[in-house]
Design brief:
Layout lengths: L1 H38 L27 H11 L12 H4 L46 H10 L8 H9 L3 H10 L6 H13 L7 H6 L7 H11 L14 H4 L9 E2 L13 H4 L8 E2 L21 H10 L27 H12 L15 H4 L6
Antiparallel strand pairs: 1-2
Helix pairs in contact: 2-7, 4-7, 9-13, 12-13
């Protein structure tokens, strides 16, 4: 009777050992996972903007904003390794002190050629759905790669950019802080850039203070504001500049595309090149007027050097082409007129109001500045 009991014990020990081994392995796995989770902790980025800007913002579910992601995106925005000859970054054509434009009619790329269109201001992109003058990109993630790989802009494939960043000491660590591992990828580069660009919020101009009832505009600025928001009606004796139909709202931006009467036949077809529709000839994205005093020269081709020239265009020189925006057709302060025909006092007032849209804190905020200059170092 004793022998069978002994044999039974001999068969039981191996299973107990295996069970302990499995339990130990599970413990190690759980501990490793816990440690990894502890090391990969991200801090949500808190966006701050006025309630009157509205909440129709666009943040992809797979690319939420984090402090770590925005910090990485800021470095990449100013990283010259993302260009073919290591001389240009996004910040080269989008300079903070110029409200993220470059002050040039057209921008020079790594090959010495000039861009096709004027560099657009980067402000309040959080609310935008279409990007570039022709609206070709539907997200900041999609937009981010275009200038990097354009041979006449930064001129470098994302494959090479990935290799350059991966071979540094610092960037794999920064990517690990954001994405959980140190692998640099094309997708992660544009995701981080998009995160940073979504934080570029301009909401502290004198006009903002006026909207918040913490500042007053001068009599001349108020006249400009009223002209800005009013459509002319000469039959009723109502004078206006009719700007708000395209640039209205607290952000001075509406996602519209218009032919604004620059030419009878535009050398640049605008979104007609994409749509193939003649009615889209010379149509371009309506830009924000935030910080407009800082973003000269103006228009998609940078043809106007001053805001006075811009006002003069709308007041006197609208070209009545077939694709002219309906908002500009026969809008005039004189009966049967084809242009606004503002008087000098009105032009001066309109200019005074446009200057209230300048946000000096936006162009000096350290959060948006070039980290390599402020920290006096370059990532190795």
């Amino acid at each position: 009777m004793g022998k069978p009991e002994c044999e039974s014990k001999k068969h039981t020990y191996p299973f107990r050992g295996m069970g302990l081994l499995l339990l130990f392995s599970f413990f190690i796995f759980a501990l490793s996972s816990w440690n990894a989770a502890q090391k990969f902790q991200q801090t949500p980025y808190v966006l701050k903007y006025p309630l009157y800007f509205g909440n129709r913002i666009h943040i992809p579910e797979d690319n939420p904003l984090t402090e770590e992601g925005v910090a990485l995106g800021r470095k990449l925005f100013y990283e010259t390794r993302l260009s073919a000859n290591n001389s240009l970054s996004c910040g080269s054509c989008h300079m903070q002190e110029k409200a993220f434009t470059d002050g040039k009619k057209l921008s020079k790329g790594v090959d010495g050629a000039f861009s096709e269109r004027n560099a657009m201001s980067l402000a309040n992109l959080l609310w935008a759905r279409k990007f570039f003058w022709d609206g070709r990109s539907a997200s900041l993630e999609e937009q981010a790669s275009v200038p990097m790989i354009n041979p006449h802009e930064m001129g470098q494939s994302l494959v090479i950019s990935v290799r350059k960043l991966q071979n540094t000491t610092a960037y794999p660590k920064l990517f690990k802080n954001v994405f959980g591992d140190g692998q640099v990828t094309e997708k992660r580069i544009v995701m981080a850039l998009a995160q940073f660009e979504r934080t570029l919020i301009s909401a502290n101009s004198r006009y903002d203070k006026y909207l918040q009832h913490t500042a007053q505009l001068s009599t001349e600025e108020m006249l400009g504001l009223n002209l800005f928001n009013t459509a002319p009606n000469p039959e009723k004796g109502i004078r206006g500049a009719n700007c708000a139909r395209c640039h209205g709202g607290p952000k001075n931006y509406q996602e519209l595309f218009h032919n604004n009467g620059l030419d009878l036949v535009s050398a640049d077809p605008g979104i007609e090149r994409i749509s193939g529709q003649k009615t889209d000839h010379g149509r371009f994205k309506v830009p924000t007027l935030r910080n407009i005093a800082l973003t000269a020269p103006y228009m998609h081709d940078g043809r106007f050097n001053t805001l006075e020239e811009v006002i003069e265009h709308y007041s006197e020189h609208i070209q009545q082409s077939e694709s002219l925006s309906a908002f500009l057709q026969h809008e005039s302060n004189v009966k049967e007129g084809t242009a606004l025909k503002l008087v000098p006092k009105e032009k001066k007032a309109l200019l005074a109001f446009l200057n209230t849209l300048t946000d000096s804190t936006f162009i000096t905020d350290p959060k948006f500045s070039n980290p390599f200059l402020s920290q006096n170092h370059k990532i190795r």
